[in-house]
Specification:
Layout: no helix or strand
Protein name: TPR repeat, SEL1 subfamily
Organism: Paenibacillus pasadenensis
Length: 154
């Protein structure tokens, strides 16, 4: 029983998986019908049946699927709980979130929160001068946020 549950033998519970390229880091799973992937301890699970492929590295560099509701990555990218996030570039500073509903985000690890369903999180320190997105209802910033130049930002 332990032989069949070894780390080298991956379980595939989907009959529609034609092929799966699985290395020690599960470099790619290029089938849209894969309901979940068991990767390494750095990427515990991708539990979305519409994930066609997942490229997993030490920092979970890119996930280019618009239907991924959340990702459990490393400590540097803890979660992305928005189903409309097509891809995330996750470094120690989270350089950018290039979602069509969020034109640009520049910040560091001091992003406290954004309680908008369409914007899962914002990194907002003194370096973020403004938030120019009409869908952001409010922003928690610092004293150096000079202005919010959007009519929809209360």
């Amino acid at each position: 029983m332990l032989f069949f549950r070894s780390a080298s033998v991956r379980r595939m519970r989907e009959s529609r998986v034609p092929w799966l390229v699985a290395t020690s880091r599960v470099d790619a799973a290029r089938e849209s019908r894969v309901p979940w992937l068991v990767a390494t301890s750095r990427v515990d699970a991708a539990r979305e049946p519409r994930v066609p492929w997942l490229v997993e590295s030490n920092l979970v560099d890119v996930t280019r699927e618009s239907r991924v509701p959340w990702l459990v990555g490393t400590s540097r990218v803890e979660a992305a709980r928005e189903s409309r996030v097509p891809w995330l570039v996750g470094t120690s500073r989270v350089d950018a979130a290039r979602e069509s509903r969020v034109p640009w985000l520049v910040g560091t690890s001091r992003v406290d929160a954004t309680r908008e369903s369409r914007v899962p999180w914002l990194v907002g320190t003194s370096r973020v001068d403004a938030a120019r997105e009409s869908r952001v209802p409010w922003l928690v910033g610092t004293s150096r946020v000079d202005a919010a130049r959007e009519s929809r930002v209360p």
